[in-house]
Amino acid sequence: MSLSRRNFLKVSGVTGTMLALGYFWKADAREAEIIKAIDADDFGVELNAWVHINTSGKVTIFSHRAEMGQGAYQAIPQILAEELEVNLSEVNVVFAKGDNKKYGNQVTGGSSTVRTAYKNLLKLGATAREMLIQAAANKWNVLKTDCYAEGGHVYHRPSGKKFHYGELVTEAAKLEPPKGILLKKRTDYKLIGKPLPRLDTWIKTNGTAVFGLDKEIPDMLYAAVERNPRLRGKVKSFDDSAARRIRGVKDVIKVKMGVFSTYREGVAVIADSTWAAMQGKKALKVVWDDSGFEHLSTDEIYKRMRESLKTKEGLVFKKQGDPAIIFKNAAKKLDVIYETPYQYHACMEPLNCIAHYQGDKVEIWGPIQAPDWIQDFVSKEMNLPREKVIVNMTFLGGGFGRKAFMDYPHEAAVISKAINAPVQVVWSREDDATQGPYRPGMMYRCEGVIKNGAIDAFKVKLAGQNNDHWRSGKKGEPNRSSSEGFLKPYYDTIKNLSINDVPFETPIPTMWWRSVYASTNGFAYESFMDELALEAGKDPLEFRRMHMQDERVQKLIDKLEEVSGWKNRKQNEGYGVAITECFESTVGQIVKVSRNTDGKVKIDHVWAVMDCGWYVNPDTIKAQVEGSIVMGLGAAVNHQVTFKDGKAVDNNFSTYQMPRINDIPPIEVYIMDNEEEAGGVGEPGLPPFAPALTNAIYDLTGKRIRKLPFNLAEV
Fold this sequence. Notes:
This is Xanthine dehydrogenase family protein molybdopterin-binding subunit. The protein has 715 residues and is α+β, with helices and mostly antiparallel strands. 30% of the residues lie in helices and 25% in strands. It contains 21 helices and 28 strands. The strands form seven sheets. The protein has a seven-stranded mixed sheet, sandwiched between helices. A hairpin with a 2-residue loop joins strand 6 and strand 7.
């Protein structure tokens, strides 16, 4: 007998044991439809964001996004629990498997987890609550309007009687989800907007949280890979005799993993422990074939960028008015160049991944930001149906975009297939630092004309590697992130403006890094805005105010001015401001600097104001902005990736130095309250820091810094 999932559940009686809801998108629908899991087959759909409530009243929420410290593990339950009327202590959070048919886009990037899903999650929780209230009213034979939900129970106002949710799920599961649910007003929230302790703090503190390196499966072997230090190079030959003599080493094989539209080759040592695999790797002798492509060094890369900005106009990304005429006729113009370095992601947890290839399928476990991208990539590379690539997420010890990449899971799958066994591939710190992909180094030529104290013409040309070219191999279009970080209200007041992308290529692999191009664009745009303010003879904060008439930005500037004491600045103190926008959130920062007793510049204080619209947990926001500032500080004054002969030089924290705790100034974070749509939180706090810092240094010393990183002790 052929049974659908719906009929099987009906026949087996499973429908009476829980209430399971999810949402899906109808064709051309503007909002999601809430349906029961059991009805999914009738609609021919897979459900997003499943919520299960069992007969004990326990609520299980499937978190469809990765948790890498940014707070998704907390935010999703906090949103659902608000409308569902349950205590967070009663919620069990489970990482969903990779399945974009069921859970939609699962890429944890672009600060998108809350801003793209919060309305549907609220609706999902509210629908479950209303079904449970209706079930209680039916059991008591009373009006639903006389009942209300609170703390995982439904109460009857007149009598004081109550049921816990577990006593109602059997009846609730028989009801049809109601339409037109009214959501709470923000003023009625009990959980959302409150600084609640994070659900993952305890399990991370007591060691029960499972990160990639903690995961084990039966009969698992371990592998370490000696990879070509230049992406496009190949393995010419290798001597594995010494490696095979290492105790615990099982095999040594050549491997090839996909990196966007090309491949990286290496030699894998398979062993019965990570230690043995790494010792075997050290004993390898590999000869590389690095012919057929350039081996560039850092100086040559930036020399070429600078030349391209002088000689090429590039591809037009944005143009309004006629800036060329203004520049041609201007008696005076500013014309300066800003430079930002290549950066490595420096996650505290180096890359690792487990794969088990089993002929007709492959299963993957690890710290993964983009399970659906991995399914797409591995299924294509290994000629497997997409549903036969099973991706399981663990906690991540940092991601910053690097763990949204497909190379390391693909490599693990290739090795597992070759040895016919499950394997965990562990990258060393040196592997992680030298293999890339990196945040691209960038250079900006900024030109401007001031007239009557305001910007008359504004022109930017940027040169640097386009991440989209690595992803798709398609070229000819300007970098779609050319204006990332630049606030949209500027377009309303700067009538003559152009932004051009000058295409630039090297063999060095690049990809996303926290806040993507906003982290480099922001430095150029907001540093140049300060130089234009100086040319106009205007206060830097007032100059921005007059060029951004948007009400939200005006209120943010008011807050910045208030909390920092901007108008009460004193002599021998330098204040710098920068305001950037990315992923639908705007962040303004003011940095204060001074000189210490030995004359060295020190950072005294940072004030940050974030406007992310609707938000979930203020503590999470403050933590993310603080972390972004620390990361931005490191990228501004501590570290960069340099190249010699086509290879990365900086291979560990000895040369790629992190900020230390005594380098971190006091940081105050303020959140704007409004009724606007939710914006991102994890990334927008990073871009304004570097320009705010260098603008403050100019205010104190008169020295303009246009190249990052710089040595703070030498200013």
